[in-house]
Amino acid sequence: MTLLYSEEQRLLADSAREFLAARSPVSHQRALRDERREHGFDPHLWQDAVALGWSAIPFPENLGGLDFGCMGLGPIFESIGHNLSASPLLSSVVLSGSLLHLQGSALQQDVWLSAVISGERRMALALDERPRHDPQHVGLTAEPRGPGYCLDGHKYFVIDGVGADAYLVAAHAGDAHTPDQGTSLFLVPADTPGLTVSALPLIDSRNHAQVRFEQVQVGPEALLGEIGSAWPALNTALDRGRVCLAAEMLGMAQKLFDMTLEYLKTRVQFDVPIGSFQSLQHRAAQLYVELSLARSAVMAALAALDDPALSEVERQRLASLAKWKTGAMAIRVANESVQMHGGIGVTDELDVGLFLKRIRVAQACLGDADFHCERYATLECAHV
């Protein structure tokens, strides 16, 4: 297992950094927020990112991908975090695309996965139903009706759910009471009768939605795989999304740390830079250590997701470790950054507040530090 990017991945990182710095700096995200864009991102920027091959990175070549794996996504998401860039890469490609790749039929892959890779269509995963991430709780039901199924229930915190062309919906089907036997996935186009989508504003000004299913009738072709068989693929896709979110938080935390260091060097009090105060030096040094540890956890998780020699439990354990440690670290860096900037740190004049808000949402998305600490402990016991 390597904790360093390869030469090819470093070139990808340089390309992403230059592209986003030129086309999607933090000021661009501020403008999207002020304009209250419904989709929360710039569609033209997304199409340019697709043209660079970002949407094809994790998929095999026979499906139209580049076969760079999750390690190829790492530097992209770090750059996204560094610039606070909004895009449907996580929702449409990493989560929905992975599920179509792992669980979808040849027809579903030909129609939908190819359209996701080409950027022609955008998909979103409808999973969570509670205020906190809990993938094992699926209350939305899928009852057999005629040749197909009737979906009834609601989903919250659907990432990039507003304006999506279709949804991959986790539903409980059958008599099983455990997620590994009772969870199924259905592909539901956005224009299906009975499906309603409403925006769910959060503090990061991104695209989140609430999706309701009221007696939504779908055909047998909407089911991904066999009934009740979706949990393994869902678990894998969620871990990919969690590690990508960890990489994004790593990029945000690194940018905040760099901004804070620069402020410590230039802000003068009592005729000296405040960075000369020993207490602030100690706090900055501690943040540097935590950043380095989090980077190691993220790199290990990215490598693990691409390593077929590891067991599924080992991959899940490292994914939770990365999301847990990086989320906790990013929260601390954001809080310390505000504190070290002083009163101006909480004003909208600085970008610090934008990073803090996005970190708060990303840390909670797909499981916060408490969720993954508990999951890691459970998996560690299973691993032993």
UniProtKB/TrEMBL annotation:
<dbReference type="InterPro" id="IPR009075">
    <property type="entry name" value="AcylCo_DH/oxidase_C"/>
</dbReference>
<dbReference type="InterPro" id="IPR006091">
    <property type="entry name" value="Acyl-CoA_Oxase/DH_mid-dom"/>
</dbReference>
<dbReference type="Pfam" id="PF02770">
    <property type="entry name" value="Acyl-CoA_dh_M"/>
</dbReference>
<dbReference type="Pfam" id="PF02771">
    <property type="entry name" value="Acyl-CoA_dh_N"/>
</dbReference>
<comment type="similarity">
    <text>Belongs to the acyl-CoA dehydrogenase family.</text>
</comment>
<feature type="domain" description="Acyl-CoA dehydrogenase/oxidase C-terminal">
    <location>
        <begin position="231"/>
        <end position="375"/>
    </location>
</feature>
<feature type="domain" description="Acyl-CoA dehydrogenase/oxidase N-terminal">
    <location>
        <begin position="6"/>
        <end position="120"/>
    </location>
</feature>
<keyword id="KW-0274">FAD</keyword>
<keyword id="KW-0285">Flavoprotein</keyword>
<protein>
    <submittedName>
        <fullName>Acyl-CoA dehydrogenase</fullName>
    </submittedName>
</protein>
<dbReference type="Pfam" id="PF00441">
    <property type="entry name" value="Acyl-CoA_dh_1"/>
</dbReference>
<feature type="domain" description="Acyl-CoA oxidase/dehydrogenase middle">
    <location>
        <begin position="138"/>
        <end position="216"/>
    </location>
</feature>
<dbReference type="InterPro" id="IPR009100">
    <property type="entry name" value="AcylCoA_DH/oxidase_NM_dom_sf"/>
</dbReference>
<dbReference type="InterPro" id="IPR037069">
    <property type="entry name" value="AcylCoA_DH/ox_N_sf"/>
</dbReference>
<keyword id="KW-0560">Oxidoreductase</keyword>
<dbReference type="InterPro" id="IPR046373">
    <property type="entry name" value="Acyl-CoA_Oxase/DH_mid-dom_sf"/>
</dbReference>
<dbReference type="InterPro" id="IPR036250">
    <property type="entry name" value="AcylCo_DH-like_C"/>
</dbReference>
<dbReference type="InterPro" id="IPR013786">
    <property type="entry name" value="AcylCoA_DH/ox_N"/>
</dbReference>
